[in-house]
Amino acid sequence: MSLDEILESPRLMMKLSFPPVMLQLMEEACKSEPDFAVLGKIISMDPALSTTILTLVNSPFYGLSQEISDLKRAAIVLGTRELLNLAVTVTYQKHISTKVEDEQYKIYSDWMLTVWGAIAASLIASRICPDQADKVYLCCLLKDISLLFLRSAAPSEIPNLAQLDSVARSYPGQAEAENEMWGMNHGALSQLLLSRWKMKNIDCPSLLHHHALEELDSFELPTQAVILATKWAEMELGNDSAPFNVLQFELLLQNALNMDEEVLEDFRGVCRTKFQSMLSILGMGEGGEAANFYNYSIKSLQASYFMSLELLTAEGGIGSIARIIGRHAKLNWDIVDWELALKSPHRDVYSLFKAVENTGLEKVVANCPLKELPWSKRGNGEAIVSRSILFGRFKYSARGLSPEEQKALKLYFRFIGQAYEHYCAKQHLIEDRAETLDALPLGVATLDMAGNIFDMNEEMGRYLGGASISGAKGFNELFSMGVGTGLGKSWDKFLETESKTSFSKILCVSLRTGGIPRDACIYVSAYKQKRGEDQVISVVMEDIREISESQIQALKQRDFLEGLIDSMRDVVLTVDRRGNINYASARFSRIFLGRNIFEIASPGDTFTGRWGPDLFEQKKSVVEVLLKRTDSAGRPFELVISRLNGPGEKYLIVARDLTHIRRLEDKLKRQAIFDGLTDLFNHTQFNTLLEREMVRSRRTGRPIGLLFFDLDGFKHVNDSKGHQAGDEVLKLVGDILKAELRAGMDFPCRYGGDEFAVIVTEVRPEALEKIGNRIRFKIEKKFSGKVTISGGITVLKEDDTPAGMLARADRATYEAKDLGGNVLVWAK
């Protein structure tokens, strides 16, 4: 039957619907100011209710000095609202007890949680929202009514009921399970039921969120009071509560209510007294006195807690746990004659220990089933339990233990149960791992991120030739000293590259462990890991001696080939049929590995084929390309491509960087064209240019001219200041020519020595003379008249040859010299 069908069934809805007295009390409770006349009339309708309320009023619940015999007097002393809350509680308890409880379900545990929660909610609200305390009491009383209703009307509709001892106690995943089955949580269902039962006036938003402890601060104060009270009830009541969690919640409650420890203890005392009085009047016992944590003071909880913490740092196996418990028993309870069974952290078997007068501890048996333990002491003793799992048992002989001491001993072993569970889950596992690691022939070390050792085991020290952490701390340095070879550049890259998180290498070396050198193959692996806030490097080193001789030779050959390839300046690649690079020389692996050769390389101008995998169809190919090592424009490489033998289509590519060769070629070309000192065209290029421009002039009809000159005063500079000063003069003259002439149209040349020639295109005679004189003035000014020029100028004639035109300009230069220099003369 679905939830919707249950809610639409009058028969089932009537099963837990409230009697008229309860409805009238609820209606009165919803008023801002309840009327005592109405309340008294309602209570008087049920004589048993009236008697129960008066009994409760005169109980230690309120601690009144004089007995009260009538309701009116009770209302004057306690207040109408308090009297109303009592009436609602008593009526509610009697109603649900008669309607819900049956042979399969005893409501006792759930009612205890309900009563403690309601009383605690009212007390908490009286501190943080006093005007809402009565309403909070009522809301907390009714928060789980949906679960009680379903337990009575349709138990199959409660998720995971078979695993629950109490329907009102929360468990992990409860809200998710309820939402999946009902489409809402049980708080929302309680609200819905109250509405169906004509209690629409009860405004309790806290019902929806009474388990939302993690979101406590996001709610209004009345809801916070209900949340804290709900959790407090679960912590203080029942054997299932983990004692560590109880103490942690007491601290949370202390902070939430802004109390010190002493005030909180008094607060617990008030809640405990009211709770016990309520149970007594309602005819309900508390169960085992030691089962509930509210019967212990906070100080006693703390004392057991701090003793149990010693188990969390114990070292030396479960024998060390037995010694700790034995010491605690002797110091706190004077128990010296005892036996202790402890469950194995790994299996469902136990070890039995007993106290021995001289040696202190004796292991009687190990790995023994629980029922076969050879106990010598009788009785059940104290169980060591956590989350309903039996982790051990402590049996002892002791006389004169008071009830309070026995109670404290029970509490101690409740804390020991949870502490031992934590030990089994963490510390013992760490010890097991350490023992296993020490037993294996593995060298283990921990390094900082710079590669310095700050911890290593004995085996690693032996691998490193007996090295210790003192002195040299760099792992690679110690490795080189102990093994005779370093880890190579790949280790340095591993340390330097943040994104590289692992390193592995196999080296065939000669080890000196034990003083006698022997051949070995060492496998070294390293991993960057985060430990807390720090980053470390974990290194594992292993001698893989059991591999075959042929494998060792293969590894040695591999190391040799890798070393050979790494020493080459060329890039060595292997690619698949599509051109995907699956191997690259170690120095270039980060750049090329995983990329496609046809995407990162483009063929040069001389390539005429189809660029792509078709290139592999040839037995051997040589092609020049621009290869992009990064996102740059690319560098010139020559690729030599060969097919590899073996399974699958794989190809070897040896890429030779042509950058240096191309630069050398460019340099040689420049030297063939330009003068090395002045960066002007040289003598050879002058003749080529003059012949070319004469042909072009005759073809286009555009005139050209020639200026030919040498330097006046240059010999004096050379003789007086040296050839370096003379070279500087020549450079400056070259700079003037390049600055004053038209790039691409005029061609300045150094003819030889201090002689210069300038081919000027598309120029008339008068313009040629102006250009020549402008150059002459610039040179004269540059050197303050100490260096000038004497030159001849001429234009192309119809029947001129290059030699004839040059000879004519040269003769004009001599005429300029005869005229005293610093002048240009037209050739005749």
UniProtKB/TrEMBL annotation:
On the tree of life, the source organism's domain of life is: Bacteria
Q: Which GO terms describe its molecular function?
A: diguanylate cyclase activity
According to its UniProt record, the EC number is 2.7.7.65
Ranges for domain GGDEF: 702-828
**A GO CC term attached to the entry:** plasma membrane
Which processes are annotated in GO (biological process)? cell adhesion involved in single-species biofilm formation; negative regulation of bacterial-type flagellum-dependent cell motility
Q: Which SUPFAM superfamilies match?
A: HD-domain/PDEase-like, Nucleotide cyclase, PYP-like sensor domain (PAS domain)
Q: Where is the signal peptide?
A: none
Q: Name residues in a coiled coil.
A: none
Which residues belong to any copy of the HDOD domain?
15-213
Gene3D superfamilies per record: 3.30.70.270, Hypothetical protein af1432, PAS domain
Give the matching PANTHER family.
Answer: DIGUANYLATE CYCLASE DGCC-RELATED, REGULATORY COMPONENTS OF SENSORY TRANSDUCTION SYSTEM
What is this protein called in UniProt?
diguanylate cyclase
